[in-house]
Amino acid sequence: MIKLSTLSNDQIHYANIGLMVVSAVLAFILPFELFLFSYAVLGPLHYLTEIGWLHKKNYFTKGKYDFLFLSLLCVLVFYFSFIKPAKSDSQVPNIIFYGLLLSFIFVFIKDNLYRVVLAILLCVGLALAETGYSYFVWVGVFLPTIIHVFFFTWAFMFYGVLKNKSFAGYLSIMALGIIAGSFFVIKAPGLQYQVSAYVDKSYELFNLLNKFLIDFFGLQTDSTDFDTIVYKTNAGFIVMRFIAFSYTYHYLNWFSKTSVIQWHKVPKKTLIITIVLWVFSVALYVIDYNVGLKALYFLSFLHVFLEFPLNIVSFQGIFKSVLPVKK
């Protein structure tokens, strides 16, 4: 049996195309169940291993302790989400967006004086900025969810392909776009099914994402009832298939690139702690999905925040490759 850690780059790209196809088929058949499984089982292991890998890479920033500031912002998101409700719809999105903007400073600027001045100016600017519905949707809902798992994953993949210039890599990039688009082309009415009471209850904290994506893609529905739109309409199933595929492949893509990323090369003690935490996390979801979701909310958001600098570096690499600067 071939181990993922021993595969060549081309083999990894072809394996990823296979993982995309498997994820897509499962997403077509059982979209809600696939998402809940991937989020509870694959998600925590992804968070834990990626954060450990990012720590070895100094989070792709120029400062040794930059990750602490991003972690603090994540604490604030958790606080205003579960402990003390936010005073306005823009409060949590502002924290998320500030984390993204702060990451630009951490990636490109080393001088501490410039960093402090720019960080203060950004804080003041966000405090004075007038935001609305679109800002809440794009920053508060889409950025830490579908943009993170789909668009940033695509950028990470594309950056790697541009460095290696592999045909198989370009093929995997095209496959990701084609498969994602297929959910909006193939109606698959025969694969629709009844959402169980367990799924309805477990997915409750996510369904706002579905509603906003339905609106964004302009999908028509015959109902105005929120639950009916998300769980019983063709538009709801189309969007859920896309979400389930995006999250599942986001996690699988990470694990498939073991030999490239080398995230598994950690001290044995760290590996044991990671496995124990992962088993405990999955157990929480098994006991009560919503308990697990709230308990792992911080870890989930933490990996999003700590990945911002990597996302920026990926896009920087893409722009440098596509638009090379003439000397």
Concise summary:
With 327 residues, the chain is an all-alpha fold. It contains 15 helices and no strands.
Characterise the protein shown here.
It is a single chain. By secondary structure, this protein is mainly alpha-helical. It has one domain (8-256, 263-314). It is 78% helix and 0% strand. It is built from 15 helices and no strands. Helix 4 (91-108) runs parallel beside helix 6 and helix 6 packs antiparallel against helix 7.
Write the layout of secondary structure elements.
Blueprint: H1 9-29, H2 31-56, H3 66-83, H4 91-108, H5 112-128, H6 133-164, H7 167-185, H8 197-202, H9 207-216, H10 226-232, H11 234-256, H12 258-261, H13 268-287, H14 289-295, H15 297-322
Helix pairs in contact: 1-2, 1-7, 1-11, 2-11, 2-13, 2-15, 3-4, 3-15, 4-5, 4-6, 4-15, 6-7, 6-11, 6-15, 7-11, 9-11, 10-11, 13-14
Percent in strands: under 5%
Q: What percent of residues adopt helix (DSSP H or I)?
A: over 70%
**Unreliable stretches, pLDDT < 50, 5 or more residues?**
1-6
**Span between N and C termini?**
48 Å
The tally of strands reads 0
Please tell me the total number of domains.
Answer: 1
Radius of gyration: 20 Å
pLDDT average, as an integer?
A: 89
Structural class determined from secondary elements: mainly alpha
SSE pattern: HHHHHHHHHHHHHHH
Number of helices: 15
- Outline: globular
The biggest sheet amounts to: none
